[in-house]
Specification:
Helix content: 40-55%
Order of helices and strands: HHHEEEHHEEHHHEHHEEEEHEEEHHEEH
Strand content: 5-15%
Number of helices: 14
Structural class: alpha+beta
Distance between the termini: 16 Å
Shape: globular
Number of domains: 2
Oligomer: single chain
CATH topology of the largest domain: Glycosyltransferase
Strand order of the largest sheet: 3-4-5
Length: 448
């Protein structure tokens, strides 16, 4: 570490500081023998707090936290929830951190109420870069791509915060109205596949490839799964039922039941559990396929009418991330077969090159690997050697910047996208935090 200078902003230029997070960094650093890995961790874990936070209090004194994703001046429901997720482990002992996360939940609830179909928002009610999209753009919406995982992340963070802190204060009337909007949206999109006009959502982008059926997407069977038109990569789906997003929503709804019970909102708890049960049942019936080389695995997208798309994408939720999201055990037999498919050439977005091997995304084009997918591979691995291999690749592909990127070229890690992508930095930081707590022996030797 002595020759690797910190890439963090100076303390007086950091957007938010947390004593608990700084202590966590120091505790983990003491367990990391490899200087470069330690340097990467110390740069990456605090990147969200250092650079992306706008923390305020509203007129009533309640926390309000706006979180940009990095080099894009907008707040994604997905990214913002994921960016503060590792902080939940520390929130109970740090009141400022609790306020920060409570403020994210409050801001997300307001975003959902503004438009449950939108994926990204501005702090203030303005129309911005995508204002000419052919959809119902409202002031305050940055982009209106209907991504089921956006709502699942809102629910996941809400339950995670309550589990970590026991604090019910963020779950006020505004939050409850947002939750009702989530449930209404889920019900509509469970039942619009056979009559596309039942959904109020449509989307076209001038100059982009046209979406079928006047922007409503392809038809599907009403089977209990929830339709959406975009993936967590912000790319368009091929088929309307995105399996990892439905799996994530199923888990989020089931977990939310305990929070709603604590709030004495039994009818909402029953409604959420019913939707979760319908999704789980439909996944088992429609989303399992037999691959000639891998056997029974999860599909990535389906339509319930026989259309199946086999792939995996680096963005989370992914098939690779199913145990991380709580959908199954990392040793579940079907998951292990699906994982083997995802990490093989049978997955059209698995890439091998001179710089590394891992899952990429059509969002960044062929021949690219995402550090986020390498971190997720390590977070879901049960074999120490596989985790070490992922750590070696992450260490070798930051191109001297000290941060994770959106993607890098499989044959040249010096060619990368998005030098400031806080979500990727957070997932890497979470990986090292997790290893520090659960498998410290993997950090106790230099990486070759």
């Amino acid at each position: 570490m002595s020759t690797l200078l910190s890439n963090r902003p100076a303390p007086d230029q950091r957007r938010f500081t947390s004593t608990a997070l700084e202590n966590e960094i120091e505790t983990a650093l003491a367990k990391i023998d490899d200087p470069e890995l330690a340097w990467l961790f110390a740069n990456c874990l605090p990147n969200t707090l250092d650079t992306t936070i706008d923390f305020r209090r509203d007129a009533s004194g309640k926390p309000d936290t706006y979180v940009i994703t990095g080099d894009i001046e907008a707040m994604w429901l997905r990214d913002s929830a994921a960016q503060v997720w590792p902080c939940l482990m520390l929130a109970k002992s740090d009141a400022r951190l609790r306020d920060l996360i409570a403020g994210v939940i409050a801001r997300q609830a307001k975003c959902v109420l503004l438009d449950p179909y939108a994926n990204a928002f501005y702090r203030d009610p303005a129309l911005g870069y995508w204002r000419h999209d052919l959809t119902e753009m409202k002031p305050g919406v940055h982009e209106r791509k209907w991504e089921l995982d956006s709502l699942a992340y809102f629910l996941r963070l809400s339950h995670g915060y309550w589990t970590a802190t026991g604090d019910l204060s963020p779950f006020d009337d505004t939050w409850l109205r947002a939750l009702s909007a989530v449930f209404t949206t889920l019900r509509v999109e469970q039942n619009s596949g056979e009559d596309l006009a039942r959904s109020p959502y449509s989307f076209q982008r001038p100059g982009g490839s046209p979406m079928p059926n006047n922007g409503r997407g392809l038809p599907s069977r009403n089977c209990g799964l929830v339709r959406c038109t975009f993936r967590p990569s912000d790319d368009r789906t091929r088929f309307p039922f995105l399996v990892p997003a439905n799996a994530m929503m199923c888990v989020a709804l089931r977990n939310l039941t305990s929070l709603l019970d604590a709030l004495q909102r039994e009818p909402l708890a029953r409604e959420g559990q019913q939707i979760a049960d319908e999704i789980a049942r439909a996944l088992e019936i429609h989303a399992v396929v037999n691959h000639p080389d891998h056997g029974e695995i999860w599909a990535y997208e389906i339509d319930g009418l026989g259309g199946v798309h086999l792939m995996d994408d680096a963005n989370i939720p992914s098939l690779l991330s199913l145990p991380y999201l709580g959908f199954c055990s990392p040793t579940d037999a079907r998951y292990l077969r699906t994982r083997a498919f995802c990490l093989s050439a049978d997955n059209p977005h698995f890439v091998s090159g001179q710089a590394g091997s891992g899952i990429g995304s059509p969002h960044t084009g062929p021949g690219t690997i995402w550090p986020m997918s390498l971190a997720m591979q390590a977070l879901t691995a049960v074999d120490d050697a596989e985790i070490i291999d992922c750590l070696r690749q992450l260490k070798a592909t930051h191109a001297g910047t000290g941060f994770m990127h959106e993607s890098f070229r499989a044959d040249d890690a010096g060619v990368f996208t998005r030098p400031w992508f806080a979500w990727a930095n957070t997932v890497f930081g979470e990986l090292i935090m997790t290893l520090s707590r659960c498998r410290p022996h993997l950090l106790a030797a230099p990486l070759a």
